[in-house]
Request: fold
Amino acid sequence: MSETSPASRPQQDTPYVPTPRTVPTRSRERASYDRELVHSILDEGYLCHLGFLRDGAPVVLPTLYTRVGERLYIHGSTGSRPLRAAGDEDPGIAVCLTVTHVDGLVLARSAFHHSINYRSVVVHGTARQVTDDEERRTALDAIVEQAVPGRSHDSRPANAKELAATAVVRLDLDEVSAKVRAGGPNDEPEDLALPYWSGVVPVSKGYGTPIASDDLDPAITLPDYLDRR
Reply:
């Protein structure tokens, strides 16, 4: 890959360094800079929200991503304005990327103390477009693997025309924080005797039974990596 290899980045047991942008103004006790925790949250998902400024106004777009070492790769179209702005010929584009998992609905006795249990990661930095062909192919395969492990080896690789129509940007994991909320509701002591149910409704990600394409050859059976989901 081009530039700094993710393998040469800091070790897993080294925490990220807090910065003014990664220290929350509220509930600071929920913030974490643990590298292993950040990686686990990122690795569990495949959809991120990418924020940036366009013509002076904030824009947030959902898009696919993957983590390779200490670097994120984000997928998009070559027609996307922010991805064009992240070209190597300029300084790139300042972005804020977020990933969130909801683990539970927290129902308190008072409406004010209702909340959610969650795990989130926020990454600040400069996104730059990947132009090296080998790095782009590796990144695109990794994006497919992030969403469906095993799929990149069970599909036709992108051809030259498709690669030309696909943009990939990279974002180094330098300015990063995680934030986690877990546990039950934080009811006020004077509300504990109120006659309202209080507790947590767990939320989990699930997958339905795969539905084959109408034109799929009946001889092609469901691959093991989908049968396990």
